[in-house]
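Data deposition worksheet. Section B asks for the primary sequence of the deposited chain exactly as it was used as input, without tags or linkers unless they were present during the calculation. Section C holds the resulting structure in token form. Section D is free text for depositor observations; keep each observation to a single sentence. Incomplete worksheets are returned to the depositor.
Section A, Depositor: J.P.
Section B:
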Amino acid sequence: MSMKHYLAARKEGLKQQHAAQARGQDPYLPVLSELVPTLNKLTQVPLGLVQIALDQIEGTATKGRTTAFSRGFMPLLEPDSEFASKWSVLYDGIVEDGLRQPIVALEYYNRFYIVEGNKRVSVMRRLDAVSIEADVTRVLPEPEDSERYRVYQEFLSFYADTKINFITFTREGSYEKLYKLMGKTPGKKWSPEDLFDFQSCFYRFQQAYSAKAEGSAPMPACDALLIYLEVFGYEDSVEKTPAEFGQEIERIWSEFVVAAANKPAALLSQPTEAKPGFLQSVWHKPPQTVRCAFLYNRSPQDSGWSYWHELGRKALEDTFGSRVETVCCECVAQEDAQEVIERFIEDGYDVIFAASPVFLDACIRQCAIHPNAKILNCSLLASYHNVRSYYLRVYEAKFVLGAIAAALSESDEIGYIADYPIYGTPTSINAFALGAQMVNPRAQIVLEWSTLPGHSPEAALAARGVHIISSRDISAPHLESRAFGLYHEQDGVIANLAMPIWNWGKLYEGIVRSILTGAWSDEGEHNADRAMNYYMGMSTDAIDIICSQRLPARTRRLVDLLHERIRAGAFLPFVGPIVDQAGQVHVAADVALTPQEIILMDYLAGNVIGRIPSVDELNDVAKGLVSLQGIRAATKE
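Section C:
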């Protein structure tokens, strides 16, 4: 029997002990019975023999010889002790014959606490083993209102399908996202082939991720895997080698850093414009010209959304003249977007504007392949550092439209036709409702949806006798219908009253100017640990309102006053009290919502009649977009 391995293990244990003490931690093994005083009263479920990862073993089930080990299960007792002799004999036996007897453990929140076999765990860790066989009993925690408990409930469902215990996420909804990325259905058992492919894929990813992290990973490997699969896809990753994983992990490392920081996206009210200086001219000489490419998922002739962006592209050319070259590609299918972006990059375009949320995945993947490319996606809440997103604060205009509607309506009911239940839509609905309520405290907004199959929102509103209606913000050029913006409709006659102006040109001009002045890179460096969203509104003229001459003079004065006050930042549409349909106060009196809170609205104001439909209720076109950016209320099935 040789003591050299014990001496080396004890040296490591003492080092761990001193490090824990320096951090103010208990230097010994955690004890489950102390962490959970009600342990014996909790429901226990035998799982039988289970292979568990050694890094998931947290401590011991009961207080015994816990002080014999460091928090890393390395031995601490003197070399001349009986404990040291037994440890050494066990070490030699495992090296020669392997581990023959499983340990006994309790599982609590997918962490394991040893009942029998502490020395076996210690030796196996010293031997750098990955896993160990254990006879496991699961201890079910008491229900509680916490993210930890909800995530564990998701894990239990995942375990029932897979019997996999080494995938432990830290954020709610992660298991659901994994199913989606893999094309799996919750509640359906995985085949042996599925299990083998996934486990081998994960272990190769984990190996590459750990090698890159070098002991300082920004987040656990399981959480990092989700981000990786969102970018590169599962099917394409099953056969990759650790080296291939390593190359791609290197490309998207900043995304792990941003996700781990878990900071709200940097919402920029306008792009930064750098002032030229001597050092900038020497070291960071900005470009003299910028080539811009645009992707539309529909034709500007058929889609009001694409039409607004096309106007913005042309405004860009008019503003910068020969300093800017633009090109657009229309009717790009979601599955073709990555190829189109690749072609634009190969053709040397400096910045690519993907003008629809459906292109987000393609943007993410192309940024991973071309980390120096400037690719932006028109969407809200994109959480990727390398892909900047952009949108307009249309809710500012909707608030003013609500005030106009209440001023002109002959009844207390006003119609609102919404399309997609995605982030930003409840914000616009609520802004309109609050604007109406400011003018008429009794105003109620009758909400209808245009994306429900077989449903006519116009007919539903007409049946209620609602004549003042807010609908889509602009009609496509080839459509003759005047049912857009805020209008009055009676007996089939439509009179347009007001409409928001989405001036994408102002946003595009600001971004291109930031590139021409060299400020683009500075913005990225100043926000290295968070995603970046351009979120422009009335203060930059990116959002405006056009009103009909039919508006009475007093109403027009109200519009001008609200417009100027909002534009100057002196009036905020979302200031409490704000109450939802159930009477719950979401915003206290005199408290203003932050931009992040405004974007994340997933409830309707108390004076809204209607609801947010689930994804199952929508037509096929709407389902595609809602699956990408649907609010929680819409994605519940």
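Section D:
Residues 269 and 421 are 24 Å apart (CA to CA).
Confidence is low (pLDDT under 50) at residues 278-283.
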